[in-house]
Amino acid sequence: xxxxxxxxxxxxxxxxxxxxxxxxxxxxxxxxxxxxxxxxxxxxxxxxxxxxxxxxxxxxxxxxxxxxxxxxxxxxxxxxxxxxxxxxxxxxxxxxxxxxxxxxxxxxxxxxxxxxxxxxxxxxxxxxxxxxxxxxxxxxxxxxxxxxxxxxxxxxxxxxxxxxxxxxxxxxxxxxxxxxxxxxxxxxxxxxxxxxxxxxxxxxxxxxxxxxxxxxxxxxxxxxxxxxxxxxxxxxxxxxxxxxxxxxxxxxxxxxxxxxxxxxxxxxxxxxxxxxxxxxxxxxxxxxxxxxxxxxxxxxxxxxxxxxxxxxxxxxxx
Length: 318
Ligand SMILES: Nc1ncnc2c1ncn2[C@@H]1O[C@H](COP(=O)(O)OP(=O)(O)OP(=O)(O)O)[C@@H](O)[C@H]1O
Hints:
Blueprint: E1 3-14, E2 17-28, E3 32-36, H1 43-50, E4 58-63, E5 66-67, H2 72-78, E6 79-82, H3 94-104, H4 109-122, H5 138-150, E7 156-160, H6 168-183, E8 187-192, H7 195-201, E9 204-209, E10 212-218, H8 219-226, E11 230-235, H9 238-243, E12 262-264, E13 267-271, H10 275-288, E14 293-299, H11 303-311
Parallel strand pairs: 3-8, 3-9, 6-7, 7-8
Antiparallel strand pairs: 1-2, 1-4, 4-5, 9-10, 11-13, 11-14, 12-13
The structure holds adenosine-5'-triphosphate.
InterPro entries: AAA+_ATPase, ABC_transporter-like_ATP-bd, ABC_transporter-like_CS, P-loop_NTPase
GO molecular function: ATP binding; ATP hydrolysis activity
Protein name: ABC transporter ATP-binding protein
């Protein structure tokens, strides 16, 4: 399958301080590719370089097989970029904002009208077209920004943390829109620091930290390769409320021969590569203390455990 984006050895410093040290990944045409990393990892810098807004210091960047800098004008027509910050005219309606952006791309007249109707429908704002953007929620403004990036019908859509600080309804619209664009063969590069978004949206991903790719590939492949397994225990009765911090904290029952359990949601987890043995030992420990087990199960590897095992920290702590 052909590659929509190929990046190799990408480096960029700001005033001598490296933001990207060595970024490399490939994005299959028609896929949704997640760029996952904590604040300051280098996601925005990578995306700005791809969109032609920043020049790299080093590295090879290709879009649809063409080298970025030598084919800048042609590539710009193929890329839609949704920046992190929202750039709209508050006093104008959603429709008039899109007229402004459409004319910037050189689209006019009846064709522009048709495209505005199409993109507003895609982001679920057709019925608010004539309302001033100042009356919109943050999520709706973000959706207008996305609509603007789609007006010239890009083959590659670059979205920089599009769901930060927005309402669940807008988030769902954005997810649905991405899925339908993908069906039409559009490639999506999506940055986020929410692991669950990558897990539900993306076929492939790169985890970046301190300007370097620390893991990349298909979601299943990355989970198999770097994710550790765990066992989860939840108890019935008073222990359940202790887990929620409503009563004085007590040591959880520990499975003999395994790491100490860590608090997780309403229960505890133990990380282990021998989950069946851990389940047996934990069941034994609970039985010995007559503790009522509500749930005892293997937790499948997640991007959370991958990130933890690769960086030693959770994404939320960073
Ligand atoms: N214009 C700039 N001038 C100086 N340093 C910058 C500039 N833009 C980014 N940086 C620095 O470069 C590094 C990478 O930043 P970047 O914005 O690419 O990361 P990010 O992963 O997108 O983070 P965030 O999730 O916060 O947007 C950070 O250390 C940041 O402080």
